[in-house]
Amino acid sequence: MTVLVFKTSVSKNKQVKRLKPLLTQLVEPKGRWNFDLEDCDNILRVETRQCPSSVVRLLQGQGYVCEEL
């Protein structure tokens, strides 16, 4: 597993709840993810075997800014 870190435009818990099923499906079966909405960059940490571009595409496809740090 690799830990990937992203800067995002996700800033509200309501947005996280909408993304939850998509992110969970992406990282299953053993991956994990979480947002740090207290951070100025609204950090998303993802523990997965997926490549970073998969996460970026997922969030961008939902209308959010996402870039790997």
TrEMBL record:
<protein>
    <submittedName>
        <fullName>Uncharacterized protein</fullName>
    </submittedName>
</protein>
